[in-house]
Write a structure and sequence with these properties.
Blueprint: E1 2-7, H1 10-20, E2 27-32, E3 42-43, H2 51-60, E4 65-68, H3 71-75, H4 78-84, E5 89-90, H5 94-101, H6 103-112, E6 120-124, H7 128-134, E7 142-146, E8 155-158, H8 161-173, E9 183-188, E10 193-201, E11 206-208, E12 213-214, E13 217-219, E14 223-226, E15 231-234, H9 241-261, E16 268-277, E17 280-287, H10 295-298, E18 302-304, H11 306-314, E19 323-325, E20 329-337, H12 353-356, E21 361-365, E22 368-371, E23 374-377, E24 381-389, H13 393-405, E25 412-413
Parallel strand pairs: 1-2, 1-4, 2-3, 4-5
Antiparallel strand pairs: 6-9, 7-8, 7-9, 10-11, 10-16, 12-15, 13-14, 15-20, 16-17, 18-19, 20-24, 20-25, 21-24, 22-23
This protein binds adenosine monophosphate (AMP) and glycine.
Residues 152, 214, 229, 287, 291-292, 294 line the site of glycine.
């Protein structure tokens, strides 16, 4: 099979690494990829906004499967454009990707189909006064979310009514997130522990991958600003077999049914961000794709033919036997540039990756670039140091942090407490 992966982050590097294991793979292309994916396939620099260019590339290179990594091209309808030309795609169509791209739609869907989630109300920009009035009726903290895509930055936890008023004002009157913030969801603050679940689905049937836990805040003990994710581990012991079963019954099955009933049949990875309180799951958000950095810990602990899984889904009939879950543990720690998620420097020389990697340690690239054959930093989240262990999570953690010490670049920062919650 000839496969093209769309994207350039740590998630896409991990997907490439897993697909590369398949005996069915002939040629692997990553559009545009990163210096890490270049070691696994051919990076191709194309503009994914231009669907026609991607279609022509697929036709010219006899691509059998396109795997779309990030949400932006999915919400932009790249999957639809490719499917219209008869190209197999792993990833939902635009109207199904709205489960992430339009939080107001997603919340209303959950309400209509009785899928557990925080109680909420939706307000449009022209309902500014109603939104402010509503702030008198609720308790605090409260959560306010930009309805559209905002690169994970559109959520504010407001401790007081004043904070909430200020945030609404910024979104509606100062265009904090542009169009994405012209509709806001105001929702109840949920207590509990978070977990991320990936359901791989053809729309009718699905398999669940092991539960992971992300670490969204920049600093230790979940302090500081939200980031794209500073690390993750899997499996998350918080999600017992019984809870996983409850997640299937109360969240995944009804959501897939709901999407079908709404004429938005879902094909791809449905990511449920959950809050687990007293064993009961509530949906914090749905994403229309694999999570980053969760993918970097989930894929290394499954075995079998991952390409077969994705390709069967793309063809409309999932092969649930194509993969199995191992007893391994995985952790990934993100090496970031000092200053992230605010301003940071780029272009710092990176060394030591080859010393860090071994049979149990992989380093997935994110914000890196090659300049005159020298590897340099090129983003906020630079590398994902991922370790697996057959024995325990604590062993995986030791391996990851030991490997992290071997990697050097000016301004390297990372969280030292990834997975502590589980240990
Ligand atoms: P989201 O982008 O919707 O996942 O929100 C980002 C983060 O904000 C989540 O991972 C949670 O940590 C937090 N969050 C979002 N919604 C809620 C909620 N209703 N209650 C508590 N925390 C929340
Ligand atoms: N790790 C959070 C996300 O992918 O949205």
């Amino acid at each position: 099979m000839n496969v093209a992966i769309i994207g350039s982050g740590g998630r896409e590097h991990a997907i490439a690494y897993k697909i590369k294991e398949s005996k069915q793979l002939d040629n692997l292309f990553i559009i545009p990829g990163n210096p890490g994916t270049k070691l696994l396939g051919k990076n191709v620099s194309l503009d994914v906004v231009n669907h026609q260019v991607i279609i022509e590339f697929c036709e010219n290179n006899k691509i059998d499967l396109v795997v779309i990594g990030p949400e932006i091209p999915l919400v932009d309808g790249l999957a639809d454009s490719l499917r219209e030309k008869g190209i197999n795609v792993f990833g939902p169509n635009k109207n199904a990707a709205e489960i992430e791209g339009d939080k107001a739609f997603s919340k209303e869907l959950m309400e209509k189909y009785k899928i557990p989630t925080a109680s909420f109300k939706v307000f449009e920009k022209n309902n500014f006064n109603e939104a402010i009035k509503y702030l008198n009726e609720i308790s605090y903290p409260t959560v306010i979310k930009a309805s559209g895509l905002a690169a994970g930055k559109g959520v504010a936890i407001c401790e007081t009514k004043n904070d909430a008023e200020e945030y609404i004002n910024q979104c509606f009157n100062e265009s904090l997130f542009g169009n994405s913030g012209e509709t806001l969801v105001i929702e109840e603050f949920l207590q509990g522990e978070e977990a991320s679940i990936f359901a791989i689905t053809d729309g009718d049937n699905f398999v669940l991958l092991p539960a992971a836990q992300d670490h969204k805040r920049r600093f230790e003990n979940d302090k500081g600003p939200n980031t794209g994710g500073m690390g993750a581990y899997a499996p998350a012991p918080l999600v017992t077999e019984e809870i996983l079963n409850r997640i299937s019954q109360k969240v995944i099955i009804p959501t897939l049914e709901a999407m079908k009933s709404e004429g938005r049949k879902y094909n791809g990875c449905l990511y449920a961000g959950l809050m687990i309180d007293d064993g009961e799951p509530s949906v914090v958000e749905f994403n229309c794709r694999f999570g980053d950095p969760e993918t970097q810990v989930v894929l290394p602990i499954i075995e079998g033919d991952f390409l077969q899984l994705l390709s069967s889904v793309a063809k409309g009939e999932i092969d649930k036997t194509s993969i199995t879950v191992t007893n391994k543990h995985a952790i990934t720690v993100v090496a970031a540039s000092e200053g992230y998620p605010g301003n940071y420097n780029k272009g710092m020389e990176i060394s030591g990756i080859e010393n860090a990697e071994n049979e149990n340690v992989m380093v997935f690239h994110a914000g890196t670039k090659n300049e005159d054959d020298v590897l340099k930093t090129n983003g906020g989240r630079v590398l994902n140091v991922t370790a697996i262990s057959c024995t325990s999570l604590s062993n995986a953690k030791e391996n990851a942090y030991e490997a992290m010490e071997k990697i050097n670049f000016t301004g390297k920062v990372y969280r030292t407490d990834i997975s502590n919650k589980a240990l």
